[in-house]
Amino acid sequence: MKTQARKFFDSRSFLALTGLLYLALAGTLLYILGTLTKPEIEAMLTKLIPKVLWANFLLIAVGVVLCWRDIAEAFRELFIGRLKGPGIWLLLVFIVGLILASQVAPQTHRIYYDEDIYANMAQNIAFTGQAGTTNYGSFEYGEYFVNWLGYNKDPSGWPFLISLAFQLFGTDETLAFYLNNLLFAGGILIVFFIVRLLAGRTFASLIAALVFAIIPHNLVWSNTAAAETSAAFFAGIAVLCTLVYLRTRAARHLFLLAVVLPFACYMRPESSLIALWALVAVSLNLFSTVSDPEPAFRHPFATRSFWVTGLFAFALIIPHFWHFFAMSGESWGAPAAKFSTSFFSNNLTVNGLYFLNNKDFPILFTMLALVGLAAWKIRPGQGAEKIGSGGVSLILLWFLLFWGIFLFFYAGSYKYGADVRFALVCFMPLAVLAGLGGDALREWVAGGEDAPKGERETGVNVARIVYRPLFTALLILLLLFCWLKFVPLVRLVGQEAWGARYDHKYSYEFIKKIPTRSIVVTHIPTMLLLWGQNAIQSYAGINNPDLIRDLMIRYNGHVYFHKNFWCNTLNDANRSVCDEIGRRYNLEPVAIAREQNHEYGLYRMTFKK
């Protein structure tokens, strides 16, 4: 049976079948684009996306099981045999990073009201199997009903992850914070293994992990419910899987890469760039040489296993193409062009100086990364191949893709509101380069390969015994000392989005003052629904008066208007909705709060006679 399967795999018929499957998938992709309107595609995706993400998640689980021995062996090597081995130090960095992220950085929302939207999308995926945000939702004796659903412009990868936690433990937005804490801590491990795979050097891996663990804004945003931490984590996983596959050419590693890659693309709009990076890495045929006699190290494009496994990736990523097509007309908050070369100059200045000003980002980390980039000749060790400038160039490409994409985005400046969060997706490659830079400096000090010729000829042993441990201690102390000045930044909540933050705070207090069987008319139903409060969009009070009348009957007169952040903004459209509701209804105050010039409140609604 096995022999017959192998013969079929090697036959031309198998090649033809593979080609036909690719054509069928491509035909399905184009057929939907050509026959359905954007609203029809959105309606289709609300039900399709959760199913695809579930299938993708289960396939990743299968891939992890197939690679479990390799994963266990990678960790076992770090701990077994040496009490003071790298595993102990890595565990220490992991624990310290987790404590800093979960206990030092404040647990708070920083991008309003996007984080509520992500969590509500998770709520919908978990309990209704639909991807989107709720504009009118209700609870009947604990059962959640979505009456009006709108498809969201953001991909659903991060909400899907939150939905898994909601299904296990119930709807609680705090779970999103805990999940981001764990993803950040997992990123520490990813950075370590990427450097270990590329350079084969423990010190470089540990320095990279340490740098990643203490990057200030990495810590700040890892204790929010924002999507960037998950985007960075899965991009790192995709990079690690790509490098492992190219190093081993094992079918099980190729399968894991094929199912991780599309899942990583679903995290954020820019996350799809990691697929481009992987394509470039595979095209370079890393870890292979022209003279390599082993057939296993042929170019991946010349192997059947690559194209067969690629079918999984292609099938899983197709809905993502439909998503981008359906969202192609979205403004994303831009009054004019979303992407333009006119934004390049300003964004380049701001986002470049971010890594050099030593106010938002430790300049020592940047300097180490530049040293790592310059010291392109990575020495082999512990079985790693020499990858030369090709490997480092790939890490640089990883950084440039995720840093450079925002230079052309209208809101891509790290000083544009809370958009410094966009920097998170390029912290991992920078930490990798910093680890290589720290290791290169240590080897130079210790009289290694990169030291001047005269130094290599004399005193090498003394230098390695004395200078190397001394430099190691000094570098770690210097990294921590330079980081200390950023602790206030990590602990700071700040004035950014204060109006929305207090809206969030007071709204939670307001709903405790009204009966359980009540409904709130609000601009932000997603936020209230997460707390178990029935809610409907504010425009219903204007466009759907008959529905409001029915709700007053259903809830025995307990219909309330929420005067929220959007009623206090200078945006005429948002304020006009609030003003119009004030003209159409009697508003009896239930709870009122003020912060600076903002007034928040909850008012019982009745129709004016």
Widest beta sheet: strand line-up: 2-1-4-3-5-7-6
Number of helices: 26
Q: Please count the beta strands (DSSP E, at least 2 residues each).
A: 7
- How many structural domains does the protein architecture include? 2
Query: How would you sum up the global shape?
Result: globular
| Approximate strand percentage | 5-15%
Return Rg in Å: 27 Å
Largest sheet: 7 strands, mixed
Report, as a whole number of angstroms, the end-to-end distance: 82 Å
Mean pLDDT: 89
Q: Which class do the helix and strand fractions yield? A: alpha/beta
What does this structure look like?
The protein is of the alpha/beta class and 609 residues long. It has two domains: 36-107 and 177-491, no CATH class; 498-607. It is 62% helix and 8% strand. It is built from 26 helices and seven strands. The chain has helices at residues 2-10, 12-35, 38-66, 68-79, 86-104, 114-128, 157-169, 174-199, 202-214, 216-221, 228-248, 251-265, 273-284, 304-326, 344-353, 363-374, 388-404, 427-445, 453-457, 460-484, 487-491, 498-510, 525-530, 540-543, 545-554, 572-584; strands spanning 133-140, 143-150, 519-522, 534-537, 559-563, 585-595, 598-607. A seven-stranded mixed beta sheet has the order 2-1-4-3-5-7-6. β3 (519-522), α23 (525-530) and β4 (534-537) form a beta-alpha-beta unit. The model is unreliable at 380-386 and 450-459 (pLDDT under 50).
